[in-house]
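A quick word before the example. In earlier lectures we treated sequence and structure as two separate objects. From today on, think of them as two lines of the same record. Here is CoA-binding protein written that way.
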Amino acid sequence: MLDECRVWAVVGLSGDTRRTAYSIASLLQERGKQIVPIHPAAAQPGGLEVLGETAYPTLADVPFPVDVVDVFRRSSEAGQHADEALATGARGVWFQLGVVDADAYERVRAAGVPMVMDTCPAIEWRRR
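And the structure line, produced from the sequence above:
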């Protein structure tokens, strides 16, 4: 997923530079990935732009294909984003460090879609 997937939707990404989602999205860009911020604030008048990219309120609002859905949300909310990833045809799902939902993992894997859970791209790139 780290190498072959180029377009990463980052669920929970806002313009708050203190948040982990922001630093990881920035790293994804440095690694040549296109990021797609997903945040409810994008539905407000004037929208939202993060790291030079237009944000969308939901995955369903993104008007082009997304390769990976990278989830920075509470574990209790993560499963719905995994289901949205499947519904929109994402090629992979990534639950960040501390985000765990075994049922969502099983649904995604049963659909034949690769999924990573409870780790971070930064950690995985360092392991190489």
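Notice the following. The chain has a mean pLDDT of 96. We will return to this example when we discuss secondary structure assignment.
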